[in-house]
Amino acid sequence: MRIAGYSRLAIVGVCLTLTALALFLAAPRSTRAVQSPRISLDMDPAGNNYDPATNTMTVGTVDGCLASPQANSSTHTHTAQLVIQNVEDLIGWQARLNYNGDEMRPTNIDFDPFLDTTTGQEVSFDNLPKDNATGKHREIVAGSSLPPGGPYPQTALIGAAYVRTQDFAISPDTPPKNPPDDPSYGAPNGGVLASVDFEVEGDQTGRTLSMQVDDGIPNPPGSAITVFMDEGLILSDYFSEGELASGFHAEGAAACSPMPLPTNPPGSARNADVAVTGLEMAAPESVEAGKYSDLHITATIQNRGPDEVEVSYGGEMRYGKDCTGPLQSGDGSEPVPADTEIRKEVSVSFACAGSADGARSVGIRAIVTAHGPYGTQDPNPFDNGRTAQVTVTVIGTAPLPTPTSPVPTPAPYGVADLQIMGASVSAPASAPAGQGFDVMVNMDIRNEGPDTTPLVVSSTVLVVAEGECVRLDYYPNVVELGDIGAQSERHYTTGAKLACTGGSDGSSAATIDISLGASGWAEDPNPQNNSWNGQVAVNILGTAPLPTLAPIDGTPIDPSQVPDSTPSNPGVGGSSSSGTPEGGVSPAVAQANIRTPAAAVLSAAAFPQTGQPAGESGPNWMLLAVAGVVLGLTAATAIAVRRLISRRA
Question: Quick check: 494 pLDDT over 50?
Fold first, then answer.
């Protein structure tokens, strides 16, 4: 299914980065991407190549079938490649893989399968362009969730994203634009996102095996990309089934047998073309230096149908040099019938410092995005955002006003009965000593009303073990998630990345206690249902010293900037995350200041669902920072990024 433009995206997963606002006073730039992207599994990638001399990537015929007339009756591995075509300005991606765990399963992902011998760097399509400032390829953050094999249907999520500041030139296109944003690379007919090793289990002679590249039904989040749009806008696009090509392998046959893949059940998809059709900004022509002035923003959002959907919207603000004001404004959601538009108005206060000569011009930009709920099929997700800018003259020489932090007086929010409707914990059954493992927590919160209230969630993840344990992540314990309306629900995901030394006899149990809470500013008639406690045990195998923790240079990730993961109940324990070492990630697309999924993705992180039979969901990692995938990254240190990426169902 497809969705776009989260106002709070980018990454479920362990993600540490410094984010910074890029300068935006340059002249507006326009791109209208081809954006008919398609992700395919190339089961026989012999025709895919990379030429470091010209920094060109070519994709041959995409073979969805690998036929082996001479059967191999023992367990063996084939390498395929994940290919993307017809995309512009890619930041991050994530891919959902569904398969039978005792037939053919993914065992290893190479997110940069080619070597640029001129720079000594590993390359995929995602980091194919070279940074004009350094002459080198960008780094990639990547993540995967690959459950161990088992005799039942399984699902995995993988994804990656490049890091630091995004722009058009550093975000690759295939085929190239005319004229190209940057001549430092070429990808005329597609790009390779990753190489994937598929392990064929035992004797599969005479059978055709399948590896489905899928949307988010029944296992959200689905395959997705995050792209760079006009004037710094970042949007994510979740694929529908028709935009994904799966892979097949015939063992001991000259051709793959016809093998229909599962399709989404009738009525499972919501169809709504959500678009931001207008954005207006009103500001004084001139303002006094050092004093706050009001800026008024009006956004027009339309649901062109055919279905009514709950439309979520949000705004970002970007200010010129030596100006200050709120960075987010006007986030909310409401049901919008088909063929209906809504107008959302908000006022913000900003202030700017003066200049030595007593007058200067500054720009202020607003970015508004809107989208339907997860699972919405939007035929044109690239009209889900819009930007506008005004220029004001700052008169005088006064400095910026001194920021004050008064204790806010709660507005009269009335009565709101908040309830934690359900929560679940997902963790691997066992983990090697000294290596990181992930504990993910999902909770569903409902407001029975009758009034809207701001929502604050708290979480504590406490480990009690025979051996010593440390946390490798940097999640805050308390997060504000914005308003939650009456008779509405919110899904929230948090977690922890842990490592333990193990017991002296080579095996010990790490017991993880989890406490969750939900609160608002309104009077709650039943606060007893606002908390939840759970526990899960992980068997630590072997003995090993704790990993040396890298210094933390950034601020803690705000999970409100992380895409929500699937709202389904994975149950306590039993799921498995790939054991990426510290400094890596265990998804969707990555996104730090991503207002959308992937990369791993996608929402990187933005990444994973793991280790359960089909129909059950594990943690959402990615996008792939997919947002979020840290997408919107400008600076810094990425300890991990997790995909791109999903909103509440």
Answer: yes
* Long-range CB contact pairs, 318-321, < 8 A, 24+: 318/21, 318/24, 318/232, 318/364, 318/365, 318/366, 318/367, 319/350, 319/352, 319/362, 319/364, 319/365, 320/25, 320/352, 320/362, 320/363, 320/364, 321/23, 321/25, 321/362
Compute the distance between CA of residue 349 and CA of residue 79 in angstroms, rounded to an integer: 56
Q: How far apart are CA 81 and CA 92, in angstroms?
A: 16
Can you tell me the distance from the alpha carbon of 528 to that of 519, in angstroms, rounded to the nearest whole number? 11
Q: What's the residue count for the chain?
A: 649
* Residue located via tokens 């997919």: 626
Residue 524 tokens read as 């709650």
Q: What is the mean pLDDT of the chain?
A: 75
- Please give the single-letter amino acid code of residue 466: E
* Pick from 325, 323, 324, 389: nearest CA to 354: 323
Of 126, 133, 88, which is closest to residue 110 (Cα–Cα)? 126
Distances in Å between the Cα of 469 and the Cα atoms of 275, 433, 547 are: 48, 10, 10
What backbone phi and psi angles, to 5 degrees, belong to 478? -130, 130
> Which is nearest to 642 in space by CA: 499, 501, 489, 475?
475
Residue 612 amino acid letter: Q
Lowest mean pLDDT among 85-94, 316-325, 350-359: 316-325
Domains and CATH numbers, the chain: 1-22+37-46+70-256+585-649 (2.60.40.680), 271-372+375-395 (2.60.40.10), 416-541 (2.60.40.10)
Classify each residue of 400-425 as buried b or exposed e, where b means 16 or more C-beta atoms within 10 Å of its C-beta: eeeeeeeeeeeeeeeebbbbbeebbb
Q: Are 608 and 103 in contact (CB under 8 A)?
A: no
Residue range 534-585, pLDDT digits in tens: 788 888 888 888 776 544 333 333 433 333 332 232 222 222 222 222 222 2
Please confirm whether the linkage preceding 218 is cis (ω < 30° from 0): yes
Burial class (CB in 10 A: 0-12, 13-18, 19+), 293: middle
Q: Count CB atoms within 10 A of the CB of residue 594.
A: 46
Measured CA to CA, the distance from residue 403 to residue 257 in angstroms comes to 68
Bigger pLDDT: 499 or 237?
499
Cα separation, 536 vs 440, in Å, equals 11
Contact by Cβ (8 Å): 39, 83: yes
Q: What is the pLDDT of residue 68?
A: 95
First to last CA, the chain: 12
Residue 136 has pLDDT above 90, yes or no: yes
Residue 74 has pLDDT above 90, yes or no: yes
Q: Are 68 and 165 in contact (CB under 8 A)?
A: no
Determine which of 42-46, 229-233, 273-277, 584-588 has the lowest per-residue pLDDT on average.
584-588
- Which DSSP category does 614 fall into? T
Backbone angles phi, psi at 106, to 5 degrees: -75, 135
User: Residue 199: what pLDDT?
Assistant: 96
Which letter, b or e, does each residue of 460-486 get, where b requires 16 or more Cβ atoms within 10 Å of its Cβ? ebebebbbebebbbbbeeebebbbbbb
Helix (H) or strand (E) holding 286: strand 286-288
- CA 291, CA 397: separation in Å to the nearest integer? 11
Higher pLDDT, 626 or 344: 344
Owner of token pair 């997060």: 479
